[in-house]
Amino acid sequence: MIHTDDCRQLQALHRRVAVYIAPYRAVLLAFSGGLDSMVLLDIITALRDGDEAMGSACSKILRAVHINHGLNRDADRWVKHCAYECHRRKVKFNIVRVVIDSTQDGLEAAARGARYRALAATLAADECLLTAHHQDDQVETLLLALKRGSGPAGLASMTADMPFHDHRLVRPLLDCSRAELEAYACARELSWIEDESNTNMRFDRNFLRLQILPLLRQRWPHFASASARSAQLCAGQERLLDELLAETLDDLMSPDGSLRLTPLMVMSNLRRAALLRRWLANLSVRMPSRLQLARLWQEVALSRRDAVAKMQIDDCQVRRFRDRLYVLPSVLPKLAKLADGVTILPWPPGYDQLQLPTDMGIIFRQTVDSDSPLQGERLSDGIASADTIVAIKSVVRAPMCDELVSIRFGPVRGLLHITGRRHGRTLKKIWQELEIPPWLRGHTPLLFYNDQLIAALGIFVTWEGTKQASEAQLHLFWLPNKNQAIYYRSINRK
């Protein structure tokens, strides 16, 4: 039986969470099974079901996901516990297993990076991500940022609602202390996982939690809430900078996410660094250190125009091409084996679509008589929303009955004559003139009839592929994989 005072406290906690999740129709809970996420699971299901003691119901689509790092001998038992707690609350539950590579950043950072990548990949189109971080976590994050010598962005620590890979990341418990969550769990008779690694002093967070924070609270009881206010003030300053720099950043960024360099050259170091950080944040790249940002500018941005300069940040690459900086996903290097000039993908008659290998997407085709309206226009020209995959369109003559259609990648020998050009050019020269970045050249599908190049999809059509007045048209729509799509947004506009 819950006492009246306890009930009021529980209702207050429910109201806090309800305010944070109110804007979202569907939520995905990062569910470890520990105290914090157990409390959050209990609250959101009580809100969904309209628990009589806790208040009115709110309509939400709920899912939970457990990331299994495979680092603890009890990992399988934790999975069973999480599955059981979700099953009895009628919450759809998923398990994602990740592999940790701690060779570069250490175990803590590697596990965190793998966890968030897995969470980003698990989110559905209309979901926001919920995590159960609380005020004590906020203080630990702030102290770790101080230890690293972070600036205002790092000292802002965690925010309650922030962008996350084209979604939102919401932390409804960020204003709650761990003591409040423990009181809630006891009042609701919850069962949660105790991870013995949380007592391992080898990890910085554990050292702060077990050795430093108790002393600070003993001397200054309100240290946690005061630290949280400091983090909020830093976050406020960062939001103000976001507003002040938003227009400049919009002017510098292209639809494909690249950043113009020339205007940055004449800016002060502070202004330029602030813009670079916000550009990277917009593309969901982990915030670089001051040293990394200096290297990015000196070694990549200021590299020779013809240099192949690049810098790795986690699983992304920052590269320069001409007057722009680009952020590339790790998926692109995996496609290089196709750009060998040998791989041929036949496209037999009677098939309206061709699935490309190595997760490069799919191509659709439609033959249209010269006087017929196009029925497939809905696929073409740009991205309708952040969750839509770009469709890259080409219009060529339809093949003759004795012409074999295929898709190839990579180099093409000899001079090519393309529409809009009077003289022949090599393919390399064409790529350069059309300002196609080097990393896209080997991954752009090339349409062949027999051994004759007809088109580079979305980029150019050769004289041999140009439709004559009486010929039927072939409309091609290439839908790249979502990880690549952003880098092809502006191709049809060139």
TrEMBL record:
<keyword id="KW-0436">Ligase</keyword>
<dbReference type="Pfam" id="PF11734">
    <property type="entry name" value="TilS_C"/>
</dbReference>
<dbReference type="Pfam" id="PF09179">
    <property type="entry name" value="TilS"/>
</dbReference>
<dbReference type="GO" id="GO:0032267">
    <property type="term" value="F:tRNA(Ile)-lysidine synthase activity"/>
</dbReference>
<protein>
    <recommendedName>
        <fullName>tRNA(Ile)-lysidine synthase</fullName>
        <ecNumber>6.3.4.19</ecNumber>
    </recommendedName>
</protein>
<feature type="domain" description="Lysidine-tRNA(Ile) synthetase C-terminal">
    <location>
        <begin position="405"/>
        <end position="478"/>
    </location>
</feature>
<dbReference type="GO" id="GO:0005737">
    <property type="term" value="C:cytoplasm"/>
</dbReference>
<dbReference type="InterPro" id="IPR015262">
    <property type="entry name" value="tRNA_Ile_lys_synt_subst-bd"/>
</dbReference>
<dbReference type="GO" id="GO:0006400">
    <property type="term" value="P:tRNA modification"/>
</dbReference>
<dbReference type="InterPro" id="IPR011063">
    <property type="entry name" value="TilS/TtcA_N"/>
</dbReference>
<dbReference type="InterPro" id="IPR012796">
    <property type="entry name" value="Lysidine-tRNA-synth_C"/>
</dbReference>
<dbReference type="InterPro" id="IPR012795">
    <property type="entry name" value="tRNA_Ile_lys_synt_N"/>
</dbReference>
<keyword id="KW-0547">Nucleotide-binding</keyword>
<dbReference type="Pfam" id="PF01171">
    <property type="entry name" value="ATP_bind_3"/>
</dbReference>
<keyword id="KW-0067">ATP-binding</keyword>
<keyword id="KW-0819">tRNA processing</keyword>
<dbReference type="GO" id="GO:0005524">
    <property type="term" value="F:ATP binding"/>
</dbReference>
<comment type="similarity">
    <text>Belongs to the tRNA(Ile)-lysidine synthase family.</text>
</comment>
<dbReference type="InterPro" id="IPR012094">
    <property type="entry name" value="tRNA_Ile_lys_synt"/>
</dbReference>
<feature type="binding site">
    <location>
        <begin position="32"/>
        <end position="37"/>
    </location>
    <ligand>
        <name>ATP</name>
    </ligand>
</feature>
<comment type="function">
    <text>Ligates lysine onto the cytidine present at position 34 of the AUA codon-specific tRNA(Ile) that contains the anticodon CAU, in an ATP-dependent manner. Cytidine is converted to lysidine, thus changing the amino acid specificity of the tRNA from methionine to isoleucine.</text>
</comment>
<keyword id="KW-0963">Cytoplasm</keyword>
<dbReference type="InterPro" id="IPR014729">
    <property type="entry name" value="Rossmann-like_a/b/a_fold"/>
</dbReference>
